[in-house]
Design a protein that fits this description.
alpha+beta; 6 strands; 112 residues; single chain
Length: 112
């Protein structure tokens, strides 16, 4: 099993959710996060004063899936989240050792 984490632009969340749903992935967690990479934030003017916004709003989408679905999930996220501009985000894939569903005690892929 693998955990796929994607950091995306907030307005792309619905597109990513739909793309994952289209390939049969029904569960996901989305969190509002802030960060920066090459974008390095930007400056804004407020009441005549210039200030720097270092951390930009992003959304982190997390899914845990069978290893056989990883390539499909990456393709779906990439296609749905891409704008072609800097700051489109990143995808991280890590291994999951164990999953336990709290309600039933199921483990492994049955707990997904």
């Amino acid at each position: 099993m693998k955990k796929v984490e994607a950091i995306i632009k907030p307005f792309k969340l619905d597109d990513v959710r739909q793309a994952l749903s289209d390939i049969g992935i029904t569960g996901m967690t989305a969190s509002e996060v802030k960060g920066f990479g090459r974008q390095k934030g930007h400056t804004e003017l407020y009441r005549g004063a210039e200030y720097v916004i270092d951390f930009l709003p992003k959304v982190k989408v997390e899914i845990v899936i069978a290893e056989s679905l990883v390539d499909q999930a990456i393709e779906a996220i990439t296609t749905a989240a891409r704008t072609g501009k800097i700051g489109d985000g990143k995808i991280f894939v890590t291994s999951i050792e164990r999953i336990v569903r709290i309600r039933t005690g199921e483990e492994g892929e049955a707990a997904i």
